[in-house]
Amino acid sequence: MNHLDPNRHVRGESQYLDDVLVQQGTLYAAVFESPLAHGVLRSLDFSAALLAPGVARILTADDIPGINQIGGIVPDEPLLATGHVHFRGQPVALVLARTEAQAHAALKLIEVEIDPLPIITDPRVAAAQGELIVPPRTFKIGDSQAAWAACAHVFEGVAESGGQEHLYIETQGAYAFPTEMGGVRMISSTQGPTAVQRHTAHVLGLGMHQIEVDVTRLGGGFGGKEDQATPWGALAALGAFITKKPVKLVLDRMADMRMTGKRHPYSSDFKIGLDADLKIVAYEVTFFQNAGAAADLSPAVMERTLFHATNSYFVPNVTATAYSCRTNLPPNTAFRGFGGPQGMFVIESAIAKAAEELGVPASTIQRKNLLREGDLFSYRQPAEMCHAEQAWDTAGRHYDLASLWAEVEQFNQTNKLKKKGFAVMPICFGISFTKTPMNQARALVHIYSDGSVGVSTGAVEMGQGVNTKIAHVAARTLGISVNRVKVESTNTTRVANTSPSAASATADLNGKATEMACAALRERLLRHAETEYTLNYEGLEIHDEQVLAAGVPAETNWEKLVSSAFWKRVALTENAHYATPDLHFDATTNTGHPFAYHVYGTAFTTVTVDCLRGTYTVDALRIAHDFGHSFNEVIDRGQIEGGAVQGIGWMTMEEIAYNAEGRLLSNSLNSYKIPDIYAAPAVLDVHFLDTPGHPKAILRSKAVGEPPLMYGIGTYFALRDAVRAFQGHTALPFSAPLTPEKVLGGLYPDFANGQTSPPAPLQKRGEPVPQQ
Amino acid sequence: MISFYLNDQPIRTGEAPASTLLDFVRYHEHLKGTKIGCREGDCGACTVLVGELAPDGLTVNYQSMTSCLTPLGNAHGKHVATVEGINAAAGQLTPVQQAIVDEGGSQCGFCTVGFVMSLTGHSLSEKPATEKNTIAAIDGNICRCTGYKSLERAAARLTAELADRPNANALAWLSEKQFVPAYFAGIPAQLAKLRPETNAAAASSAASAASTTTAHANGGSTVSTSPNGHCQSQNGHDSPAAHPFAHPLLGGGTDLLVQRLEELREQPVRLVFDQSGRRGIRQEAGGRVVLGAATTASHLLESELMRGLIPQLPQYLKLVSSTPIRNMGTVAGNFINGSPIGDLTIMFLALGASITLANPAGGTRELALPDLYLDYKKLAKTPEEQVTEISFPTPLPGDFFHFEKVSKRTHLDIASVNSAAWLRVENGLIQQARISAGGVGPVPLYLARTSAFVVGRELTADTVLAANAVMQAEISPISDVRGTADYKRLLLRQLLWAHFLQFAPELEEAM
After folding, report:
1. Which residue among A93, A511, B348, B486 is least crowded, i.e. fewest CB within 10 A of its CB?
2. A chain contacts of residue B42, beta-carbon cutoff 8 Å
3. From the candidates B47, B107, B402, which should be mutated to test the interface with A, based on the most A CB atoms within 10 A?
4. Is residue B295 part of a domain?
């Protein structure tokens, strides 16, 4: 069965936020942003803007009836700036006008006075000045300090990974309508409808029951709409609440890029110790996370970095410390992998460093140290149903690792100006929200009297196919055709107190709740069949819409059974609640059992570097992945392919650039590049490992959203391998993304010492940059 | 009035000619299948098909265009097809749509319609479908979800299906196979009927915007309004006095609607594509190749003359923007935009191009392309002067010409550094040379000193090294979002090597 939504997508019939028919009287909102990254807000002058054509109203923090606060984890983020501004692009005021163009035109007429304050953009500088979002955290197992003496080899270094723009093709937005009860109903492009609801209620000083948030689907999220859809929803709601008119707020692309946070850049120090047999004995790492100007989800992202600091390896002595550093950039936020990729990049760098210094292939060290059944992670959860070695070895056999290596070797011997590189990237990713209470979900299932079924959950469809999976679970559990099942929009009035669609866990949590609700309905219907048709309950089942008694078709089918149950006043609606069992985590000791299970896999990456130009291609990405029992291979393969290419983008061309004033230089699609069709690997093979799945995974089909992103990390190391094949003496830093510029610098390290120009300040020539 | 067909409906609108086709389609006609992703031609979510009546009046040639950068005025006399206009009845999927669904080529769906339209346009093309050119048809479509492999599989499936497409009467076959609805067959006749009307009306539409008074509008103007660029002016001659020369000139919109949309849609504009005699590529008896000012990058690619003179042109142009942008953007527009890294400008600098500028008084003058550039975005022309033609001396067989471009992403990106070189070599000695480089100065640079330096020298590594020293003194790159100054210097050195390696592969031994 395919993803159900695309039948509508390809015809352009799927409705996204901006496609909703506009109600008469709608006001359009545009956000006035701070033009400086840090300062004291002295004055705002709206006099000219208020006289501009079509302008209805301009709102500031003073107009907020409730609490001017949208911080989710730490209350440190006002909806509209007051007193101080902390990043360029911070919302300061909201213009409401009769047309979108009028609202945007009025922005240019607003005068603001800000006394500038010092600007920090570097997380290490922030840490040195004590600018921390939350106190640092340390995950520790064994005694790394004591272990160094016993190590045959110890290596230290620095690794840096850059930010990443989500670049959902649908920008952020919300459309809010005043309700007759004095509250607000809104359509929001959010992964977290409850977050939008809760913060909007606080901002408006209302109960959550007065705020209804409805989500049909998103044109991509990737974490960027988990917490950061909230400001736009709350602002639109504020406008609707105050003006009593519908208010629509959709960010244009450049505003979206300027104002919203991205994947966290990290700068990290590592120290790794190995014994003579290349077993990793000890690992110390200090992460400096660039959190931006407010907490947003940074503490949780930082925590997941610590959870994944040792990736797929067993290390007996680990000390991993992380600092969440406050800088004057937009608050960075969730992005597929949620800190995990940043942690993994560092240990892979440490292993690469050790391998390069020792003159052994990195894969030798990697393979020797893979997790085995029962090995403890630093947080004390054991690796259970561990497939790390299986993934590696199966990939090795399936793709013939030896010959892949030999090909690279041979190519490099015969080519002077082109070099191939190769890397293995094993992954291990924990599934569950690491904040244990978030691992709960509800499903509301209606069977209508004609036998059709409506399912509501907290899951938000954003392309990951969760609605298709939920429909499949419902159909399979009820024994009916999927064509009878409709997955409803995600609405806070039908399913309340939801967790965001995130952490790869959406299908597991909401699917399990759906399964429970449908199982209860099925049982109720079969109990009804037992009495109504005098059948033996044992052995009763519904299969392909036919009621079977001990395998024999009974006199009734789905439609008749439902109809008869309705007339016998049997409840045809069920609400189920699922909470992942056995999860616990103590954030004071940083130990416990935070994950329902782990997902494993291994990827082989082959690249070719053009050593004349510094450009490169990713030739092949060959993956063996632990899906468990996939019940939708089209969707699951799509998640692997899409995630891996996103990871490749993060490691190669996606370069976020801010200048020292905190201004985003990579501020549009012409200066920030994500992979296009030619940038995708020519070969991208996905092998479905024969693994049993996990009972805590929906229908034993393991979560698949985030893990594949980390296969992309292999691209960095394959490129590094190729550069070193050309230039053995290069001091290429462990710095991602490895852009063509960095590659060329690595290939010709002497050039910069020879002929250089005086250093020019980083600036963008001319505005706007033209189309080419 | 702007008159065209939108799907199966005739449209007559007084909306501003410099407003975007995207806004018209989405917010005026409420056809919401066409999505907004970036409004700068970089994502393809808003891709539509624009069909133009062939000179024979019997067929319509469709091209994919990003509607966000298509001036509404350029739709005049055309057939614009959005997804609503290609959907089959009763929820049936077209073969393009079916292939995408079956192969899992759509996840969140926001970019999907753009892919559907690009591939549908490819199905309507006259060229035989190959896996390569089917992929090329979606080179302007960005997808953040799928990683493209499923779309590649869909494209491969489509290529196989299109193998059966007959050369003759392809539209009937496409219609029968439900690639496009049956009404497409009637479009040529409908557009032919529009012709007289568009010829009469477009002068005013070109000169006036709905939002302004008609002070500039001159309904009786003699401006020729050929929707397809092949019709001749009604009077045989344009009367220069009637031209509102002060109005901004708008070609494909690929630069100006990114940079100045809000300003342009509030005022009258002149539309290059509505002017007569601005298209076509021809070789003159005197040995020069002449391009009309409305020549797009796609026209270069389709020109047998150009491909014959520069056999590697398809490879070079693959590095220049994307299929829909190449369908829209003009060569002259690339020159006049004055971007220091304009790809086509860099190519034509090395080809020795000059431009013909016409002024309101009817006078014309020739200007060597290097002389057009005074400083960053400062041109040696008055705002009233308009490029009418571009010409360059015909390269001789045996001449070397090569173009290089490096950008963060190889395709659909702006260069960090680009460069072109033309050399004439006799008896092992360089007789003539023209080398250009972009991204290393405030303007697209013709490297006069470097070019002069290599003349009289051999194609050797020593020449490259010495030429590089001259070149490094001739450039002044700055650090920006496309790279640091040091990188650009190193990169240009490498690209100089790349030129010479192209001409003399044996130099690799000397590296």
Report:
1. B486
2. 668-670, 771
3. B107
4. yes
Predicted TM-score (pTM) of this structure: 0.95
- The CATH number of residue B250's host domain is 3.30.465.10
Domain that holds residue B419: 400-511
| Cβ(B480)–Cβ(A763) below 8 Å | yes
Q: Collect all residues of chain A within an 8 Å Cβ-Cβ radius of residue B511.
A: 416-417
Residues of A in contact with B324 (CB under 8 A): none
Question: Which member of A12, A221, A677 has the closest CB to residue B83?
Answer: A12
Please state, in angstroms and rounded to a whole number, the distance separating the CA atoms of residues A395 and A87: 46
Residues B252 and B364 in one domain: yes
DSSP letter (8 states) at residue A642? H
Phi then psi dihedrals of residue A586, to 5 deg = -105, 110
Q: How much is the pLDDT for A263? A: 98
Residues of A taking part in catalysis: 706
Side chain identity, residue A681:
P
Of B372, B395, B418, at which residue does a domain stop? B395
Instruction: Report the mean per-residue pLDDT for chain B.
Output: 91
Contacts of B412 in chain A (CB under 8 A): 676
Find which of A7, A10, A336 to mutate to test the B interface (most B CBs within 10 Å of its CB).
Answer: A10
Nearest C-alpha in B relative to A747: B490
B286/B411 same-domain check: no
pLDDT surpasses 70 at A764: no
Beta-sheet strands, E only, within B382-447: 386-393, 400-406, 417-426, 429-438, 445-446
Which DSSP letter does residue A671 get? T
Residue A3 pLDDT class (50, 70, 90 cuts):
low
Q: 3-class DSSP state for residue B503?
A: helix
Structure tokens at A50: 């208020």
As given in the structure block, the two tokens for residue B55 are 């000179």
**B251 and B355 belong to one structural domain:** yes
pLDDT of residue A622: 98
The DSSP string of A464-495 is: S-HHHHHHHHHHHHHTS-GGGEEEPPEETTTS
How many beta-carbon pairs under 8 angstroms link A with B? 304
Number of domains in chain B: 2
Closest approach of chain A CAs to the CA of B221, in angstroms? 32
CB contact under 8 A, A8 and B109: yes
Tell me: pLDDT of A760 over 90. Answer: no
Determine whether the interchain pair A220/B480 forms a contact, defined as Cβ–Cβ distance below 8 Å. Answer: no
Give the pLDDT confidence score for residue A731 in this predicted structure. Answer: 82
ipTM: 0.96
Q: Domain for residue B136, yes or no? A: no
Query: Quick one: closest CA in A to B102, which residue?
Result: A2
What pLDDT was estimated at residue A753?
52
DSSP letter at B242 equals: G
One-letter amino acid of B411: H
